[in-house]
Amino acid sequence: MCNLSDLVEEEAREKALKEGHAKGRAKGRAEGIEEGKITTLVGLVADKILSVDEAAKRAGVAKKDFLKYLH
């Protein structure tokens, strides 16, 4: 038989789990968007549409850090 405190504790656990899943999905979505942005910029550099300097600027990273994506 469950008492009230057990029910409250279970509801709190379920709520925390849902919030954790929502945060995890949001983080994954943000990482995916960033990865897609880098992939697109690398492609534009490879096709000689953008310079490495411009791509790094648009990615918000230093040129030396962007160059790592090209290898």
Tell me briefly what this model is:
With 71 residues, this protein is mostly helical. The chain has helices spanning 4-46, 52-59, 63-69. Helix 1 runs antiparallel to helix 2 and helix 2 (52-59) packs across helix 3 (63-69).
Gap from first CA to last CA: 62 Å
Q: How would you spell out the order of helices and strands?
A: HHH
Which regions are unreliable across 5 or more consecutive residues at pLDDT < 50? none
What is the averaged pLDDT score?
Answer: 91
How would you describe the overall organization of this protein?
The chain is mainly α and 71 residues long. The protein has helices at residues 4-46, 52-59, 63-69. The longest helix is centred in the middle third of the chain and has 43 residues, at 4-46. The protein starts with a helix and ends with a helix. 7% of the residues are buried. This is Resolvase. It comes from Anaerostipes hadrus.
Which terms summarize this structure?
3 helices, mainly alpha
Task: Please specify the SSE layout and strand pairing.
Elements: H1 4-46, H2 52-59, H3 63-69
Helix pairs in contact: 1-2, 2-3
